[in-house]
Amino acid sequence: xxxxxxxxxxxxxxxKSFYASFSDFxxxxxxxxxxxxxxxxxxxxAIAIFSEAADSAAEASTARAEKLIEDxxxxxxxxxxxxxxxxxxxxxxxxxxxxxxxxRLFAAQRARTISARIFESKKDWASAEQxxxxxxxxxxxxxxxxxxxxxxxxxxxxxxSIERAIGHYKTVIEKYGESDIGLPHAYFSxxxxxxxxxxxxxxxxxxxxxxxxxxxxxxxxLSRDRIIALKSRGLAK
Length: 237
Description:
The chain is mainly alpha-helical. It contains ten helices and no strands.
């Protein structure tokens, strides 16, 4: 047998040896492979089920939220006190159902905002503030979240809880930044409330932030006026 024939035979033996070893390996660990594959199949099925369930939950919660909005619209236009009271009870029950079943979906956030509006109409500012905060926490990434914090701050101010109101506005500034179209209002509110607490340095800082960052904002002229007023009274440099 020449050298090339021996070399070829050697390679064939090595290949057979490799496949034999690999087959033994597969047989030995077949249950581990099967288990891993089964886990992947189960995971894929779980993802599909979760996706289907999420779609179903979104559809169901949206339908309930639409009914809630219809009832709230009727509530606003209802002049008969007995009917209005019945609608309020129905709204409260529907809002409770939505927030308990789908606490982290947009429908829950909408339900919280409607509950907050009803509390505001009754001047129950403490309950309104809590509902606005819960609305913001339900879906923090939605466009309603910073708006809810603005309203929570307003409700806190109605309770004369100025430091808490400032805290809510600062949360808007720190958490949502430029993504919140109401950001100049948040800065102005912090400045205004700080001025009321005689913290003129903080007031000036926030007024000047508005002037430098939003020269065309409706809040800029008001901020300039307050800066002039504070300086003219010797309360700020």
